[in-house]
């Protein structure tokens, strides 16, 4: 591992041997020498001794233990990020720098103040290191350091590491008797004062003194992650004062921001660790303690803690120009020194000295302290260069800063221009102590200075606020120092009004938090593009993150920041720039300020399904073309209070549920409804989207576009001025919502005073076919998008292509609204659907899927309605590794989704093993035949060599199919695959126990759109009969006819069912036969009796056994009382046959040898996962995934159906029908993934908690059901079904199924 270790890190690796010399070897203790020179010489010996080496870092054994110093720790942390190491470090006053880095690296930080605590935290460290690095600080006396480390009980750690215990390390520690408390509290429960500290303060905290002074002392044992909730519980409600005893402000900012609102705090005092006299004076009865205004010295705290002896500050009160002159003079001397060293390195010197000089030159003056000291010692006796000898201090690494505290800079001042245009490698820190009270105008001056500096495109620029985030502040100053060029940092330290009598530190923290959360201050870090770095903007304050992340290109970033700052143009400074700054900076300056003079348009959208967002962005693009300055944001990502400052605002808003606002607009609507915001200066317009037929009952007509209409009325009541009457887009119009849009938009442009050109004449969003054609055979920019770490998403166009690779981009809709309110992007993740032709997998493949679900996904496996494995919750950073692990199992996801032939389904019931072998082999052969030929899948996910050219798709062509194409193979009498619900179906024809061929069916499909009568479900129609030898060719020609004649202009009308409906089955048959070159025979008779699964044990014709296991809605997971996932993995470990995925989302453990049947049976019983006690309704239930991951879901499905089934079961049991088999299915939207249209009872989601209810489907999947009631909730569902079920129990005929009964009784028509 040392080969990749930066030399400064190697140079500064130290170790305190107090404990290491006694430490047991099993803990992999690092005993590195204090002198760097011999470090590499020890590597081989250390390797043999099981010390610090790469094999240990990678092995799942005892954690590597490092006893080191505070100074070396910082470098080590960044080098061994996430390795799971334990660092024991003596506590010093420089703790904050490394704690800040530990927070960035997500390391755990523990602190010990006694021998007992040391041993407890040492044990806990090794347990916690299973999750990442642990830093264990100890503050011990010399006597306490005389610890016999060999008393350390390694058996506890070994037990946890080797057992794969699922409990957390903290819980395991408690069970093992290890103290894992995160805080230690000493003192009375009714204390009025709390003192909080982490190291050394316990020396003053004698309980008797604490009680007498009504003081509670809280020692922090675990600082990171800081458990605010547990800390708050320790605080008595009687507390009035809290004193934080610490080196600097990190603990200060962490605690105060999380304090409970019920705790009345007067002052927060920061004291140094060694000021114990102040603590004693407090205990002796002093009731008031001086409030230290630490924020005034925050700059020195941060700079000195980060750079220590390397810090060099050039300050001259009232004259930053003088400070700049001094710094430039120093830099000139340094350059002369570098030149002298360069010449000296070529002279006649000792080999060691020359090597050290060359190393120093390569480091660009940022060598290690060890090397610097060696060079200074050697240079003190140097005769060859008097200049080097007299200026040997330049060998030391320096961080040069100008700190402006007194001077109030603004854009008319030339100081920043002078500094930046010099291009020198220096750092400017500007302290902003302006008032940010929200009742005052937004401050400018120093805040604007940072934004102005961005315009140069040559400087590192950051805005920090240590009172809000000490960690971000430390990171920024380190990045500024590392940047090879000028840097400007604005340090915000907000202070209250001068008229405010409360001027303590707590108020400053509250002001900082309020200013940042309200968007008055934006924390950011900007790195311009150089030869060594790529241009990047990181925004560290959450309020504006969603806004700014959309503007990662420089012009948009700076335009947005400058617009928010409202900087005025300074012609005097412009003339200076024109003469002194390079042309690039001048052009950028003019372009930016030219944009400031444009008419501004703010576009806010509220969108759940994406239509309103897409339209808003298209309007924004056109507005930019018309010369407007545009911002386009979700409504909740904009600070609603700032709406009054906008001149022109357009709202584009869809309608959710029963007239509700979309999730990313609700908070804005709540605020506007509850507050009398003065919008008299705002010119607004609203364009509302809706579907007039979505709620078809006359009494529900007011739900149509209700959100937009309500918003329009409210904005007018708040004195806003309408630019236009409200525009309304209706999905039911001939051109959808564009019909109303194209009527409204010319008036909108005219009202803004720009050319009233319709959006319809602008370049349209590329069609799906255009995207496919331009994708280079499904490559697009997927590979590049995977490397983009600025977002968890892929581009919109690439997400259309990833479907062909079996991948859908999704987000967690449970937290979508919350993240929108916080200004965060959606919690994006990906679903992968693994193609399993015929549903047959090996136990080894199942175990691989189980591993992937735990390693990369959300810990569950979904068995789909199309016999595929499905994973959810895979984030982009591990998406490629997930795909590679799938490939290692000899499975793949290509063509599991997309406009191609998807996973071919086949009856998995192998009771007749010979016939099953025939149809299963055909399913695999046909699936392989229709796979896309492109090598994109293997290039992107498996790192195969790129195709040099000449690639083609012989079956699909560049645009593939108009829509998805689904194939299923049924073996009567079972119709478990719902063969008539598919585009292409094969029905095995068996005569006298022999397979003779297939009936072929075409044109089935379940998908519809609510309220759109042009969309509907259809059952497939018979096409004819073919032999096994003809079957592949017949299927291919069916698909090719659809390829050539399917509707490519309207994806809602693009399935094969509509092609056949439009042209007729006879035309379609003739077209297929003309391409085949032969006529199909007439279909042969067959009979289906059921479309469900046959549960439990069955003996197969070859003497083996099968067990069909009920998996509720296909979700394989463990719960506290139902260990399904664990049980199936244990079965897979011993099973010698196959795992067959059922089309009804269940699992068939098949081909079990007679001698293994008892073993499998015992395991099913052991985990309680057999089918005992399940009702007939539950065994025939099926649901799609829906919320929270499916972007199309309008209501719950998988998470709700089990509960609803339980309530319907009660009705069935009351009527003696618990064992009656009735098919019930639910989907969260009308796309039909769970094939609801052929269920006897079905529910299709329409809005949260609301479903359309269908009855009368065929028990064998041979008949569509009918809409019985619209928009019903649970109460209506149960009250509706109760009398029907009661009648069914009384009036049904022998053997009559529920679906047949409701038709015979006229409840629904046939």
TrEMBL record:
> Mind listing the GO biological process terms from this record?
cysteine biosynthetic process; sulfate assimilation
Pathway membership, UniProt: Sulfur metabolism; hydrogen sulfide biosynthesis; hydrogen sulfide from sulfite (NADPH route): step 1/1
First-tier enzyme category under EC: oxidoreductase
Q: Per its UniProt record, what Gene3D superfamilies does this chain match?
A: 3.40.50.360, 3.40.50.970, Sulfite Reductase Hemoprotein, domain 1
The EC number(s) this enzyme carries: 1.8.1.2
- Which reaction is catalysed here? hydrogen sulfide + 3 NADP(+) + 3 H2O = sulfite + 3 NADPH + 4 H(+)
State the name under which the record lists this protein: assimilatory sulfite reductase (NADPH)
């Amino acid at each position: 591992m040392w080969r990749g270790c930066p030399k400064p890190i190697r140079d500064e690796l130290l170790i305190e041997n107090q404990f290491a010399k006694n430490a047991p070897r099993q803990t992999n203790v690092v005993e590195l020498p204090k002198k760097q020179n011999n470090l590499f010489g020890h590597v081989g010996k250390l390797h043999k001794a099981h010390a610090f080496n790469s094999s240990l870092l990678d092995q799942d054994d005892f954690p590597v233990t490092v006893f080191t110093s505070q100074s070396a720790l910082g470098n080590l942390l960044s080098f061994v990020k996430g390795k799971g190491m334990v660092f024991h470090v003596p506590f010093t006053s420089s703790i904050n720098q490394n704690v800040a880095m530990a927070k960035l690296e997500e390391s755990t930080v523990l602190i010990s103040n006694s021998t007992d605590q040391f041993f407890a935290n040492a044990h806990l460290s090794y347990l916690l290191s299973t999750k990442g690095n642990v830093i264990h600080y100890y503050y011990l006396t010399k006597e306490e350091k005389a610890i016999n480390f060999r008393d350390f009980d390694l058996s506890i750690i070994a037990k946890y590491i080797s057992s794969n215990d699922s409990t957390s390390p903290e819980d395991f520690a408690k069970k093992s008797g290890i103290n894992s408390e995160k805080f230690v509290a000493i003192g009375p429960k009714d204390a009025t004062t709390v003192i909080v500290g982490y190291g050394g303060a316990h020396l003053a905290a004698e309980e008797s003194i604490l009680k007498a002074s009504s003081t509670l002392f809280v020692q922090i044992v675990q600082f990171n992650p800081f458990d605010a909730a547990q800390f708050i519980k320790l605080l008595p409600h009687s507390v009035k004062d809290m004193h934080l005893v610490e080196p600097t402000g990190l603990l200060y900012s962490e605690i105060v921001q999380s304090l409970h609102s019920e705790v009345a705090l007067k002052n927060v005092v920061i004291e140094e660790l060694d000021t114990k006299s102040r603590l004693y004076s407090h205990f002796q009865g002093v009731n008031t303690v001086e409030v230290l205004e630490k924020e005034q010295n925050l700059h020195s705290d941060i700079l000195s803690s980060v750079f220590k002896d390397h810090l060099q500050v050039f300050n001259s009160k009232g004259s930053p120009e003088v400070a700049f002159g001094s710094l430039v003079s120093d830099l000139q001397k340094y350059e002369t020194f570098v030149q002298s060293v360069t010449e000296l390195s070529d002279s006649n010197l000792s080999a060691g000295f020359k090597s050290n000089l060359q190393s120093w030159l390569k480091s660009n003056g940022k060598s290690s302290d060890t090397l610097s000291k060696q060079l200074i010692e050697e240079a003190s006796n140097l005769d060859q260069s008097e200049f080097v000898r007299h200026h040997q201090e330049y060998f030391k690494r320096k961080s040069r800063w100008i700190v402006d505290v007194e001077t109030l800079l603004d854009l008319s001042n030339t100081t920043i221009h002078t500094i930046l245009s010099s291009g020198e490698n220096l750092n400017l820190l500007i302290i902003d102590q302006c008032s940010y009270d929200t009742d005052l105008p937004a401050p400018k001056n120093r805040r604007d200075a940072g934004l102005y500096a961005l315009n140069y495109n040559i400087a590192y620029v950051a805005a920090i606020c240590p009172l809000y985030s000490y960690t971000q502040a430390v990171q920024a100053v380190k990045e500024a120092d590392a940047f090879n060029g000028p840097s400007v940092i604005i340090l915000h330290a907000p202070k209250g009004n001068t008229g405010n009598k409360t001027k303590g530190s707590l108020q400053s923290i509250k002001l900082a938090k309020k200013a940042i959360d309200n968007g008055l201050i934006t924390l950011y870090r900007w790195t311009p593009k150089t030869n060594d770095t790529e241009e990047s903007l990181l925004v560290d304050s959450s309020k504006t993150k969603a806004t700014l992340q959309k503007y990662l290109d420089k012009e948009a970033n700076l335009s947005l920041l400058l617009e928010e700052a409202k900087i005025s143009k300074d012609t005097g400074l412009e003339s200076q720039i024109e003469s002194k700054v390079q042309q690039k900076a001048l052009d950028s300056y003019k372009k930016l300020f030219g944009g400031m003079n444009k008419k501004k348009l703010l576009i806010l959208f509220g969108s759940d399904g994406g239509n309103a967002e897409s339209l808003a962005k298209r309007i924004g693009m056109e507005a930019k073309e018309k010369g407007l300055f545009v911002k386009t944001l979700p409504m909740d990502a904009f600070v609603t209070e700032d709406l009054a400052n906008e001149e022109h605002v357009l709202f584009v808003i869809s309608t959710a549920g029963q007239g509700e606002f979309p999730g990313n607009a609700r908070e804005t609507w709540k605020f506007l409804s509850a507050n009398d915001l003065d919008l008299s200066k705002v010119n607004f317009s609203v364009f509302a989207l809706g579907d007039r037929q979505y709620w078809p009952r006359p009494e529900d007509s007011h739900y149509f576009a209700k959100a937009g209409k309500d918003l329009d009325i409210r904005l007018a009541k708040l004195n806003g001025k309408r630019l236009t009457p409200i525009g309304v887009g209706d999905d039911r119009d001939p051109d959808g919502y564009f019909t109303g849009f194209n009527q409204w938009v010319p008036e909108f442009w005219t009202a803004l005073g720009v050319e009233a050109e319709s959006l319809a004449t602008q370049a349209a969003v590329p069609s799906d076919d255009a995207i496919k054609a331009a994708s280079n055979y499904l490559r697009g920019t997927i590979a590049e998008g995977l490397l983009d770490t600025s977002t968890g998403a892929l581009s919109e166009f690439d997400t259309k292509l990833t479907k062909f690779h079996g991948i859908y981009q999704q987000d967690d809709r449970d937290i979508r609204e919350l993240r929108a309110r916080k200004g965060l992007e959606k919690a994006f993740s990906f679903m992968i659907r693994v193609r399993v032709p015929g549903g047959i997998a090996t136990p080894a493949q199942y175990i691989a899927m189980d591993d992937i679900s735990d390693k990369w996904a959300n810990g569950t496996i979904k068995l789909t309605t199309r016999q595929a494995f499905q994973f959810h919750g895979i984030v982009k950073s591990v998406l490629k590794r997930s795909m590679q692990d799938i490939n290692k199992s000899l499975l793949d996801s290509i063509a599991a989704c997309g406009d191609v032939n998807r996973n071919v389904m086949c009856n998995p019931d192998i009771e007749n093993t010979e016939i099953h072998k025939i149809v299963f082999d055909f399913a695999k052969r046909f699936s392989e035949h229709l796979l896309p030929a492109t090598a994109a899948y293997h290039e992107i996910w498996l790192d195969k060599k790129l195709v040099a050219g000449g690639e083609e798709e012989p079956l699909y062509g560049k645009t593939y199919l108009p829509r998805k194409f689904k194939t299923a193979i049924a073996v009567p009498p079972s119709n478990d695959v719902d063969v008539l619900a598919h585009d292409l179906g094969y029905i095995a024809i068996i005569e006298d126990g022999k397979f003779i061929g297939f009936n072929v069916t075409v044109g089935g499909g379940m998908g519809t759109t609510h309220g759109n009568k042009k969309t509907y479900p259809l059952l497939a129609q018979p096409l004819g009969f073919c032999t096994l030898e003809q079957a592949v060719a017949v299927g291919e020609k069916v698909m090719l006819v659809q390829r050539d004649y399917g509707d490519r202009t309207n994806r809602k009308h693009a399935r094969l069912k509509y092609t056949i409906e439009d042209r007729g089955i006879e035309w379609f048959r003739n077209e297929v036969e003309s391409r085949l070159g032969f006529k199909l025979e007439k279909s042969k008779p067959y009979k289906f009796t059921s479309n469900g699964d046959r549960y439990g044990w069955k003996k197969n014709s070859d003497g083996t056994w099968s067990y069909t296991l009920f998996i509720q809605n296909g979700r394989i997971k463990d719960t506290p009382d139902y260990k399904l996932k664990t049980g199936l993995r244990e079965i897979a470990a011993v099973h010698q046959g196959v795992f067959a995925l059922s089309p009804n989302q269940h699992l068939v453990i098949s081909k079990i040898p007679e001698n293994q049947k008892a073993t499998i049976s015992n395991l099913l019983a052991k985990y309680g996962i057999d089918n005992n006690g399940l009702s007939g309704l539950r065994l025939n239930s099926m649901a799609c995934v829906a919320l929270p991951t499916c972007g199309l879901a309008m209501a719950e499905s998988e998470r709700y159906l089990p509960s609803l089934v339980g309530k319907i079961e009660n009705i069935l049991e009351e009527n003696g029908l618990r064992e009656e088999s009735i098919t019930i299915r639910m989907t969260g939207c009308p796309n039909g993934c769970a094939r609801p249209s052929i269920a006897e009872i079905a529910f299709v989601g329409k809005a949260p908690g609301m479903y359309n209810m269908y009855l009368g489907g065929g028990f064998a999947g041979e008949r569509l059901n009918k809409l019985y009631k619209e928009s019903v909730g649970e109460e209506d569902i149960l009250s509706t079904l109760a009398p029907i079920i009661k009648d069914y129990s009384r009036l049904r005929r022998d053997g009559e199924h529920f679906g047949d009964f409701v038709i015979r009784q006229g409840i629904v028509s046939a």
